[in-house]
Amino acid sequence: MGKVFKERTSVDKALRLFLERISTLRKAEEVSIETCTDRILAEAVVSERNVPHYRRAAMDGYAVRASDTLGASPANPVMLQLSDQIEEGGTIWVHTGAAVPEGADAVVMVEDTATVGTLVQIRAQVYPNRNIGQVGEDIKKGDRVFEEGHLLRPCDAAVLASLGFDRVKVFKNPVVAIIPTGDELVSRKESRDVPPPGKVLETNGLMSALYVEKWGGIPRCTEIVPDNPDSIKEAVEANLDADMILLSGGTSVGKRDHAPEVVTALGELLVHGIGVSPGKPAALGIVNNVPVVCLPGYPVAGLVVLYLFVRPGIRKLAAIPEAPELILKRRLAAKISSRIGYIGFVRVVLEDDKVRPLAGARSGILSSVAKADGYVLVPENIEGYAEGEEVDVFLIE
Amino acid sequence: MGKVFKERTSVDKALRLFLERISTLRKAEEVSIETCTDRILAEAVVSERNVPHYRRAAMDGYAVRASDTLGASPANPVMLQLSDQIEEGGTIWVHTGAAVPEGADAVVMVEDTATVGTLVQIRAQVYPNRNIGQVGEDIKKGDRVFEEGHLLRPCDAAVLASLGFDRVKVFKNPVVAIIPTGDELVSRKESRDVPPPGKVLETNGLMSALYVEKWGGIPRCTEIVPDNPDSIKEAVEANLDADMILLSGGTSVGKRDHAPEVVTALGELLVHGIGVSPGKPAALGIVNNVPVVCLPGYPVAGLVVLYLFVRPGIRKLAAIPEAPELILKRRLAAKISSRIGYIGFVRVVLEDDKVRPLAGARSGILSSVAKADGYVLVPENIEGYAEGEEVDVFLIE
């Protein structure tokens, strides 16, 4: 009792200490290209084909020998004979994408022609290869089409499909074990009735699982573990086959807070006490090379730690490439106060072309999350922002 | 032959004409809150409970009668007796989140106390209700927690769970029928070998399906339909139970382009020929109140039309709330040329803190999509952007 945090690590430093101990998994599996969206390529893709695989007409028009069109113009058209093979003075209709017939070396676009019976008036001179897509012009056999580590999008699936691929090797998604701890917790599976005073329905596990899934992990939720070190230890040990472990609750410095001490006992506690508000009691550690995040039990604090540490951790495990951060710039409809020494995670609501901080949004106040569209991070070294100041807004997804 | 587009509608106008004919579906279904992420609430959620449902200690500490702490200070502590019920001069330990015992009206935080045997030294005076969360302080029974139309996030699922909800009513996702058309197409299901000259593997259907899924629709792909008006008509009629129909291919003005005429025959063609490059041959229409998008067969042009028309169409059908657009601002590493009268959809690659337009990225060039990180839209009335100009970059997802 009366214990306080001995130290407080800045968010930046805590994140660095955490990420440098996380190794990208690089375990591969094969998936169908029908389900490859948002997966990461585990190997470069090299084309085994030419695209196009034949000389392709780039326009609707007439395939010709370019030499037959010499000097052709609207005033001085050349007449060619519609034919089924290309010889001197002959032409064949081709539509966009069709194979250019052998013997032809150019296509005259339909707009530069007219037909009179089986004669075609050519009203423009074309040079060899005009309006023809050459074999391999787009993608050549042997071309590296995608590098390892590429994040696959629907348009990439189409590229793979057109190269004849049906399955691709991608990195396995990291398994994230989620262990809710706390004597006060009641499982929603047992009863969704109002629990007795002092008891609450367990919901942080659900929130964590859904975020893990959204961010590219595979959540695995365990039963609720009571507030005692042996039970928590057992639960952690039982989940060391996972790629990351989230311990929810019991991370402060009270007498029922055992999560950080369990991490210390089983492995290495990297950080306990982080300069973010809410979220200060969070702890980060490593057990048997498995990153462990101790999430505060207060839902808003838990959300903060999910965003600040779990998301980047999953991205590193999963080899998700860094993407430029898209930030919304908005002016504040009211001032924000924040505590020096802590990054303030301030929930905000979009309001016309401004954002308004949610009043009275303490870390235990669940409804503040429901109401918030996003959050503003106030740096450690300032006391807040004035009304009207432009701030970076991160949308809560 | 020789037909050209009689008109060309601007992207803005085409989108307006299209969207004003689309009605939001508003068909509801119930889903488990375990799978409610990214769904849209079909009705407001009203809480049937108070949160907290009991007087909750907001701190680890000692529950007291505030009147017993009168005048307490570090220099002048008040001594209270550890007890199992609160009477004058008695106190009970409570941890954060615990029920405050009957008779107590405040909690003294542990940092302001010390224990000596069964005596507790109280070193700070507290006022009534100090460090106590009142019943319903967060959410009151009868409060509207979420409005109809709210997009559900993992944190919202947790809020719903804590209110005792297990299932929620959400809008059904729109079914989007995807009909690939073209005599040149070969189904990947039949053979993934290199097709004969003039034939290509069908892949636009797959790309469309994966984007539809990403954007909140339920894709339903049909077999490939040959280039003849009756077959296309039949395919459209067979899919009028869908909420949107995508016809891929056959949308230009060549002799094998029947998609727009089929739309005209069955319903109403709103737009044919749009001021965007690539993507100009796209057409938009309505058949039996079902929006129909004719996607050009060239993959890049198809992608453009998916982004510019299909995505907003799905969002309107599905009642997905408007979100502020997050735009990346970057300087150009090279100039962009664009055609007056058309919005230029220019594929770009991220390069350090700049973006570089992809050279030679014609609409038939599939590899340009694989290489592109995003796109820049050049307005209709300008010829391009100079090197070094700052542009808005949309990432291709």
Notes on the protein architecture:
Two copies of one chain form a homodimer. In chain A, strand 20 and strand 21 form a beta hairpin. By secondary structure, chain A is an alpha/beta fold. The longest helix of chain A has 20 residues, at 299-318. The radius of gyration of chain A is 32 Å and the shape is elongated. Chain A contains seven helices and 28 strands. Chain A folds into four domains: 11-26 and 173-318, 3-Layer(aba) Sandwich (Molybdenum Cofactor Biosythetic Enzyme, Chain A); 28-51 and 137-171, Molybdopterin biosynthesis moea protein, domain 2; 56-133, Molybdopterin biosynthesis moea protein, domain 3 (Molybdopterin biosynthesis moeA protein, domain 3); 328-395, Beta-clip (Beta Barrel), CATH 2.40.340. In chain A, strands 7-4-6-5-9-8 form a six-stranded mixed sheet, with no helix packed on it. Chain A has a six-stranded mixed sheet with strand order 16-13-17-21-20-18, sandwiched between helices. At the A-B interface, strand 8, helix 2, strand 15, helix 3 and helix 7 of A face strand 8, helix 2, strand 15, helix 3 and helix 7 of B.
Q: Portion of residues in helices of chain A?
A: 10-25%
Low-confidence stretches of chain A: none
CATH architecture of the largest domain in chain A: 3-Layer(aba) Sandwich
| CATH homology superfamily of the largest domain in chain A | MoaB/Mog-like domain
Distance between the termini of chain A: 38 Å
Largest interface: A-B, 86 and 86 residues
Share of β-strand residues of chain A: 25-35%
Query: Biggest sheet of chain A, open or closed, and with what strands and sense?
Result: 6 strands, mixed
Taken together, the total number of domains of chain A comes to: 4
Strands side by side in the biggest sheet of chain A: 7-4-6-5-9-8
CATH class of the largest domain in chain A equals Alpha Beta
CATH fold node name of the largest domain in chain A: Molybdenum Cofactor Biosythetic Enzyme, Chain A
The count of helical stretches of chain A stands at: 7
DSSP, total strands of chain A = 28
State the secondary-structure class of chain A: alpha/beta
Mean pLDDT of chain A: 93
Shape of chain A: elongated
The Cα radius of gyration of chain A reads 32 Å
Oligomer type: homodimer
